[in-house]
Design goal:
Helix 5 packs across helix 6. The strands form five sheets. This protein has a six-stranded mixed sheet, with helices on both faces. Strands 16-19-18-17-20-21 form a six-stranded antiparallel barrel. Among the domains are: 153 residues, Probable tRNA modification gtpase trme, domain 1 (Gyrase A, domain 2, 2-Layer Sandwich), CATH 3.30.1360; 83 residues, Beta Barrel (Elongation Factor Tu (Ef-tu), domain 3). It starts with 18 loop residues before the first helix and ends with a helix. It is α+β, with helices and mostly antiparallel strands and 381 residues long. It has nine helices and 21 strands. A hairpin with a 2-residue loop joins strand 17 and strand 18.
Length: 381
C-alpha cells in the first residue's frame, strides 16, 4: 500500500477530499491542476481506457474548482463573462461555455451550472477564473458575491455508470437528462449530481458539498459499483482525444479564439446582452481567422504515450502549425491528434508531416471527433 505522504510538491499544492482514498485504491502518480493534486496514474492507461469504455471508472476531479456567483445581479454578471447566450438557461440546467477576455481570447472553457434563480457555479478547467471574476466585479456596478465554495466533484463515467447511480440513488436518477443537475443526499452526504463529464461517455458528476466526507463518499461509490465492474481511474487522454474534447493550456489558451476552434455555436454576437470580448469577436468573425484546429491521423509506429511538447507540423519544408494533443487509440488502431494549422492547410485530406520524437511522420487531415462524432454515447441518444 502506498503512503499518501510520499507524494509531495509542497504544502502550497492542495489535496482533494478524495486524495487519501485514491492513494489507498492505487493512485501511483499525480500532476497539478488548479493548484491541486490530480491522480494521473492507476496503472496501465490503456486498461484505464478499456475500463471506461466497457464498464465504468470513478475519477477524482476535485480540481474542477467552483466559482460560485450569487446575488440579485448574478445572472446578468455571468452573461458578461461568456459569449454564449444564457437567456434560456433554466434553473437545474448546465451549459458548456467559453470565458473570453477583451481580445476574444479564451480564458477557460468550464461547465456552468444554474442551481437557483440567482445561484451559479462555474466548474473550471485549469485557470484562475475566481480572480478574473472577482476583478471584473469590482467595477461592474452589479450586486454579486463571488467565492470558491467547499465543493469537490467526482466523475463516474462509462456505459455502466447509470447502473451504479441507480444502485446509489434508486431508479428515479435515470430520469436525469443530459446537461441537467439534481440536488440529492447519499446517507446524509449533501451532493449535487449532474449528467456531465469529461470523457465523451455516458457519465455523471457528483459534487460533494462537505469536504470532510470525501473518503466516505468515495468508498460508498466504489462498493456500489463493484457488481458492475467499476474501477478507480483517471481522466483518459485516449478517450478525450477520440472525442475531440479540448484540454486548456494544450489545445487552447489565452491567445486562442473560439472561431479558430470551430466553436462558433458557442458565440452569439447578435444577442442584445453585452459580454467581455464582444467587439473583438465581432471583428474576428468579419476578418476571418488565419489558423484552424484540425484532426490528424499520424502514420507509422504507434505512439508510446501522449505528447509532452508541441510537435511541429510541416508542409513542403515549412512549419505551418503544431500538434497540441496526440495519442495512440487502441480501438481505432491508429495515432490520432488535434493540431492547430494555417487555414490554407486545414482541408480534409491535406497531406502533412509531423516532427515527432522518433523522427518525421506522415500525417493527413481528417474529420474530428474521431469516434462517435454526434456525441450519441454521452447524450444517451
Amino acid at each position: 500500500m502506498t503512503d499518501a505522504d510520499s507524494f509531495g510538491f509542497g504544502t502550497q499544492i492542495r489535496k482533494s477530499p478524495y486524495f487519501d482514498a485514491t492513494v489507498r485504491w492505487g493512485a501511483k502518480a499525480f500532476s497539478v491542476y488548479n493548484h491541486m493534486y490530480i491522480p494521473r496514474d492507476f496503472g496501465d492507461p490503456e486498461q484505464n481506457f478499456w475500463n471506461l469504455v466497457n464498464d465504468a471508472i470513478l475519477c477524482d476531479v476535485a480540481v474542477e474548482r467552483q466559482v460560485e456567483i450569487t446575488g440579485p445581479d448574478a445572472a446578468k454578471f455571468v452573461q458578461t463573462l461568456t459569449p454564449r447566450d444564457l437567456s434560456k438557461l433554466a434553473v437545474g440546467q448546465c451549459k458548456y461555455i467559453l470565458i473570453t477576455n477583451a481580445d476574444g481570447g479564451i480564458l477557460n472553457d468550464p461547465v456552468l451550472l444554474r442551481l437557483g434563480e440567482n445561484h451559479f457555479w462555474i466548474s473550471l478547467a485549469d485557470s484562475d477564473i475566481l480572480f478574473w471574476a472577482q476583478g471584473v466585479a469590482v467595477h461592474a456596478g452589479l450586486d454579486v458575491t463571488i467565492r470558491e465554495p467547499d465543493v469537490s466533484p467526482l466523475q463516474l463515467q462509462g456505459p455502466k455508470s447509470g447502473d451504479v447511480m441507480k444502485a446509489l440513488f434508486g431508479e428515479s436518477i435515470s430520469d436525469l437528462r443530459y446537461y441537467w443537475l439534481r440536488e440529492v443526499e447519499l446517507d446524509g452526504i449533501p451532493l449535487i449530481v449532474s449528467r456531465t463529464g469529461w470523457s465523451s461517455e455516458l457519465g455523471y458528476e457528483l459534487y460533494l458539498q462537505d469536504g470532510s466526507r470525501g473518503g466516505e463518499l468515495w468508498d460508498k461509490i466504489i462498493e456500489a459499483g463493484e457488481p458492475f465492474g467499476l474501477k478507480p481511474g483517471h481522466t483518459s487522454s485516449i478517450r478525450r482525444i477520440e472525442g475531440g474534447m479540448l484540454s486548456y493550456h494544450a489545445d487552447m489558451d489565452i491567445g486562442t479564439n473560439p472561431f479558430e476552434l470551430g466553436m462558433d455555436r458557442f458565440v452569439d454576437l447578435d444577442m442584445d446582452a453585452d459580454f467581455i470580448g464582444k467587439a473583438a469577436l465581432t471583428r474576428i468573425r468579419a476578418e476571418g481567422v488565419t489558423r484552424k484546429q484540425v484532426g490528424l491521423r499520424i502514420e507509422g509506429e504507434r505512439l508510446s504515450g501522449p505528447n509532452t511538447t508541441f510537435w511541429p507540423v510541416v508542409r513542403a519544408g515549412e512549419t505551418i502549425g503544431k500538434v497540441t494533443s496526440a495519442i495512440y487509440s487502441p480501438r481505432l488502431k491508429q495515432n490520432i491528434a488535434l493540431a492547430m494549422v494555417s487555414v490554407e492547410n486545414a482541408d480534409i485530406g491535406t497531406e502533412l508531416e509531423v516532427e515527432i520524437p522518433a523522427g518525421v511522420a506522415r500525417a493527413s487531415v481528417v474529420e474530428k471527433p474521431f469516434f462517435d462524432p454526434k456525441k450519441k454515447i454521452a447524450s444517451g441518444s
